Amino acid sequence: MELESILLPGVEAKRPIVIAGPCSAETEEQVMETAKQLASRGIKIFRAGIWKPRTKPGGFEGVGVEGLSWLQEIKKETGMYVSTEVATSKHVDEALKHNIDLLWIGARTSANPFAVQEIADSLRGVDIPVLIKNPVNPDLELWIGALERLHNAGIKRLGAIHRGFSTYDKKIYRNLPQWHIPIELRRRIPNLPIFCDPSHIGGKRELIAPLCQQAMDLNFDGLIIESHCNPDVALSDASQQVTPDILDYILNLLVIRNETQ
Length: 261
Ligand code: PEP
Ligand code: MN
Known about the structure:
Elements lengths: L16 E5 L6 H12 L5 E3 L18 H13 L2 E5 L3 H9 L4 E4 L1 H4 L2 H10 L7 E4 L6 H13 L5 E5 L2 E2 L8 E2 L3 H9 L5 E3 L1 H5 L5 H10 L4 E5 L17 H10 L8
Parallel strand pairs: 1-2, 1-10, 2-3, 3-4, 4-5, 5-6, 6-9, 9-10
Antiparallel strand pairs: 7-8
Helix pairs in contact: 1-2, 5-6
């Protein structure tokens, strides 16, 4: 798989590349406040879910298209790059119309080849970075298959996100890390940037720091971490989000032993 290494200009100078922001965009004030706090701590790529795939009906399913204009405002005000999750070709069209800088495909979507193909087809001829989360189940071939579908559609700036694998037993982790799977992905596609998502692996704040350190020790390229200006009242994934201040603290404590620098 031939890949261009630069996901976004100016963010890859040193490990880790950090993407941070709330699980979900809830209000314009919440995303703007969070983004400003993150930008002032040096975070360059903002994340926020606009369309939220919830396990059961009745939960907060995202603000939809309206949230994309909030992300555009964030770009203007803070100079950050902005990213969101897409699950359908309609999402892709809306995100492109609103100049979103980076897209990611969620774990439920990457388990569905029809959905991934639909997204890939709607991105044909578009030059945008796309990160693909592992499928919810520990199926490396399905993960690679999703990457291949995007690559075959001409997407050159591709990356993977390790967010852990679904398990019935959630005693420690919300999603089991099974680190050997992303490690094998790196062996199979050596120049693919790989991010770790400690928020969805751990499911709780206390696990963010140790999971980030493990990811760095395993030479991951980046981290995508959920951060909310007021995590306790978040409408989704409240227990795993950290304030920008705590995020900064966690990142500053990381020991980076970089093999390539
Ligand atoms: C998310 O990033 O908020 C999300 C829904 O993650 P995942 O697809 O990994 O469950
Ligand atoms: Mn989330």
